[in-house]
Amino acid sequence: MNVKQHINEYDLLILGAGINGSMLYRIATDSSKKVLLLDKNDFASGSSQASGMMVWGGILYLQNFEFNLVRKLCKARDRLIKYSKHVYTRRFSYTFLKNSERSFFIMRAGLALYRILGLLKRGKTKCFANNKLPFNWSKTLFKGGLSYEEGFLKLSDSQFTLDWIFRQNATESKAYNYTNIQSIEWEEKENHFKILFINYEKVKTTVYAKSIVNTCGIWADNVNKQFNIQTKASHHLSKGVYLLLNNPKTQKDAFVVDMEENNDTLCWVPWGNTIMWGPTETSIISEKELPVTKEDVTFLLDKLNAKLKNKISKSDIINVRTGIRPLVKQNDNEVKYSLDLSRKAIFESNKKIPWHTVFGGKLSGGLEFSNEVYYKIFKESPNPINFNSTVQAPTTNEFYNGIELPDVDWTVKNTQVRCLDDYLRRRTNIAQWIPVGGLGFKNEYLHDIMKISELIHCSKSEAEFDFKKYTETQRKERTTWEN
User: Fold this and answer.
1) Where are the domains of the chain?
2) Which of 97, 246, 343, 470 qualifies as a FRET site for 378, CA 20 to 30 Å off?
């Protein structure tokens, strides 16, 4: 092996920089492994930018008596609450409709068991009356409820994901977004993979890796197929849509409401100056069905308006939030309804070459699961995570009427921001909390967006192109479901 080849050889190549890939990247680098993390798009630009942001202990698994799994997820949740700056404790209130068939006493017993499985680290279950419901809800439809504690993300799921990738101490490991892999070959004699990829600047690079992990989420099956990797498991795709509404009275309480069909629920969760309402649960064939439709919005509005005193319309929606859940299934299993599938993650290795695939995954148990993945690959336990080695960005108050935001220039240089969507959607919450993806209902923030684009790009023409592309995309996406 020549010197150049040695420099470009990695212990592990991770494909996909979502929550699974980013956590595994941090674990492996903190364990002194040389790791390369590549993503075809921006970091955290798939399912990891569109979750419900709840860091939960797996309460739904009590229905199937999976007590050991719930215990493990509670432990994982509480670890993140204790050590991660991104996660805090939040109360969720389960509301009972007057015509609900759910038993108050069974639910209370279940929540008590849930707390016990979490070793009593979360607060006690509390009963509440209708006067605790949101101000615009029709309280005559309800009969109070029960509140319990979970974990929740302070900023966003994408910023939580990015925090695992970027760290203060320089290492030999590297992470790159917007890369295009041209070829992957297993070289039997050298006992490593040879990988050719093109980076954001169109530069071709050849690297070598002893092992590969596919953590591409909803794209994992396609990546395996592209490189002729056969697996027993695959993904069933489920689309989830949230409406982001105005939070006029800065409500803080989060509520869970019966959807009255399919044993499912919907959530009302204040987030910043918005309220998330959703999600939907729609089985789809491919990521091409990701865009929000009129049907998605109408469904959620109808479910909400049925519980409100003063109805709302599409024009009241600040933004929409949509993502795809990659749910694990066995290839020979037929799926009738996505809620029948477990939200658990599994790990599958190829028997002939060191190519591994992660299927599924959750925010809550991602760290513990990534520890297990590391152990299975390297046959050793990883080092403890250093939660304090993350990068802290300086801030600016220059844009959006003085909102405190990460400094644009610093963020571009240190977190590989390539376009407006990277900054407005994933490094900040502007594209979620400000109407029409940050444009404003009356296009009042176009000047701010243009100035940010000029800071991102080296040339005026590139800045203008990105500005035009971003603003047109936001308007088009809103028109798709609004009109």
Assistant:
1) 3-48+158-231+350-378, 65-151+237-279+300-321, 395-482
2) 343
Instruction: Return the SS3 of 64.
Output: helix
Distance CA 275, CA 216 (A): 29
CATH fold of 65-151+237-279+300-321 reads: D-Amino Acid Oxidase; Chain A, domain 2 (3.30.9)
Contact assessment for residue 226 and residue 212, using Cβ atoms and an 8 Å cutoff: no
Query: 207-211, 246-250, 255-259, 410-414: which has the minimum mean pLDDT?
Result: 246-250
- Amino acid 3: pLDDT: 44
Domain spanning 3-48+158-231+350-378, CATH class: alpha beta
Q: In 3-state terms, what secondary structure has residue 348?
A: strand
Which residue, 300, 343, 336, 417, is CA-closest to 43?
417
Domains 3-48+158-231+350-378 and 65-151+237-279+300-321 share a fold: no
**pLDDT by residue (tens digit) across 358-408?**
999 888 888 999 999 999 999 999 999 888 777 789 999 999 999 999 999
Please tell me the distance from the alpha carbon of residue 246 to that of residue 244, in angstroms, as a whole number: 7
